[in-house]
Amino acid sequence: MSDLETKAVDILDKLDALTTQYAPDVVDKTIQAVVITGISNLVYALVGFLAMYGSWYATKKMTAFCIKQKEKNGYMSDWETCCILANVIGGSVCFAFAMVSIRMLFDVWNWIAIFNPELALAHRVLGL
């Protein structure tokens, strides 16, 4: 064997020793990371639902305010436009938060990551 082949075999032996020594810890930490990612996605979904509720509540309050002002100032005042804009913008924001939150909450892989992290890890490694 040449000197280069000897060094290559030496490096591969050291790499094999390191792999057998640290592989269980790496797998355990990777599984923990998968579980944490699944939990964080579900927390994001819950925060999204809270933001959706907040935007719905603000839209409701703004619409009530605009209706009161419209009644004071008469039909086809600027408050009519304000009421329409409040509902369109608030409804759009509420809808966006709802769609993102529902998608994250009902994503099967987030729940699998919590209850069966090995399967979720295999899913991520295989890129399915």
Would you mind describing this structure in some detail?
The protein is mainly alpha-helical. It has one domain. The protein contains four helices and no strands. The protein has helices at about 5-75, 80-105, 110-115, 115-125. The chain is rod-shaped, with a radius of gyration of 28 Å. The protein starts with a helix and ends with a helix. The model has no long low-confidence stretch (mean pLDDT about 85).
Q: Which terms summarize this structure?
A:
4 helices; 128 residues
Tally of strands: 0
Radius of gyration: 28 Å
Q: In this structure, how is the largest beta sheet organized? A: none
Strand-pairing-aware structural class: mainly alpha
Overall structural domain count: 1
Question: How much of the residues is beta strand, in percent?
Answer: under 5%
Ranges with pLDDT <50 over ≥5 residues? none
* Helical coverage, percent range: over 70%
Overall pLDDT metric: 87
Shape: rod-shaped
Number of helices: 4
Element order, helices and strands? HHHH
- C-alpha termini separation: 44 Å
